[in-house]
Structure formats: structure tokens, C-alpha cells
Design brief:
This protein has a single domain, classed as Sandwich (Jelly Rolls). It contains no helices and 7 strands. The chain has a 4-stranded antiparallel beta sheet, with no helix packed on it. Strands 5-2-7 form a 3-stranded antiparallel beta sheet, with no helix packed on it. It is elongated and about 45 Å long. The protein is mainly β and 75 residues long.
């Protein structure tokens, strides 16, 4: 993410989980209005069905890996 970048995600389907791992830089993660600062080498896991936001509020780019786990739908 470039400096000053902001990515708002409303919500994902219920029971969806999201994990983000910061490879470099500092990431601001907000989940359901609760703010968390993540630094290089740190990760967070949260229910993606809640409103969430990723932001780079620092001067350096942020490299991150994001994994989204969506439960299977019933056939």
C-alpha cells in the first residue's frame, strides 16, 4: 500500500474470516470501529463479516499478505 492509501471494506459474507500479515511498514487496521496498529512481522485475524478498513498512515509503503477464508455454501 502506498503512503496515505486507505482501503475500506464494508463486510464480507457471514462466517468469513480474514487474516493480514504485514511484511514491511506499518498498517492501521480498523475492525468494527476498533483500531489496531500492525508492524512488520505482525499479523491479525478477524471476522470479515464486520466492517473493516486498511490504511497506511505512515510515510513508507506497506507490503502485506491478506488471506480471506470463505465458508463453503450448501448445495
Amino acid at each position: 500500500m502506498s503512503p496515505a492509501a486507505d482501503r475500506v471494506r464494508r463486510t464480507d459474507p457471514p462466517a468469513t474470516r480474514e487474516m493480514v500479515w504485514v511484511e514491511s511498514g506499518a498498517l492501521t487496521l480498523s475492525v468494527a470501529g476498533e483500531r489496531h496498529e500492525l508492524f512488520s512481522g505482525q499479523c491479525a485475524r478477524f471476522p470479515a463479516g464486520r466492517p473493516h478498513r486498511y490504511a497506511n498512515e505512515g510515510p513508507d509503503p506497506v507490503r502485506l499478505t491478506m488471506v480471506l477464508v470463505v465458508p463453503p455454501t450448501e448445495a
